[in-house]
Amino acid sequence: MQAVVTHGVFAPCQYLGHKFVDGGILDNVPAGEVRKLGADKVLTIKFSAGLTYDPKNIYEVAFKSIDILFDARAKEAMKESDFVLDLDLSKASVFNIKKIDYCYNIGYITTITKIKEIKKILEK
């Protein structure tokens, strides 16, 4: 089987011979499930939130609670991954659509800086 990349809140899809699988709410890093599907390599994209900020209103409290839950669940699940691309989105919530360009740029820059490591994992 080809490499499988896990990410986001979308239905599984095929792209250039690779299957992309969503992690969803209950299992936002489904690396173990992807392994069970027979993937030889599992690459995980993790969105690291800013867990050190003090929430200023009820919305920020709610989002920080979700970030803490996702972070705790992701740490255990990532043990099944061959490589974790950790995106530092501490300056933006992944739920804040106004920061989508910022999030995209962080993903792009982080991927470019880690591309040699990613290729090395895929070549093994």
Can you describe this structure?
By secondary structure, the protein is an alpha/beta fold. It has one domain. Helix content is 40%, strand content 19%. It has a five-stranded mixed beta sheet. A hairpin with a 2-residue loop joins strand 2 and strand 3. It is globular and about 45 Å long.
Runs in which pLDDT lies below 50 for 5 or more consecutive residues are 4-8
Compute the number of structural domains: 1
| DSSP E strands, number | 5
Distance between the termini: 14 Å
**Beta-strand residue percentage:** 15-25%
Structural class computed from helices and strand pairing: alpha/beta
Helix percentage: 40-55%
Radius of gyration: 15 Å
Strand order of the largest sheet: 2-3-1-4-5
> Number of DSSP helices?
3
Order of helices and strands: EEEHEHEH
Mean pLDDT: 79
Overall body shape = globular
- Please describe the biggest sheet, giving its number of strands, its sense, and whether it closes into a barrel: 5 strands, mixed
Provide a short characterization of the protein structure.
This protein is of the alpha/beta class. It is built from 3 helices and 5 strands; from the N terminus they run βββαβαβα.
Features:
124 residues, five-stranded mixed beta sheet, 3 helices, globular
List the helices and strands and how they pair.
Elements: E1 4-6, E2 13-15, E3 18-21, H1 31-36, E4 42-48, H2 58-77, E5 83-88, H3 100-123
Parallel strand pairs: 1-3, 1-4, 4-5
Antiparallel strand pairs: 2-3
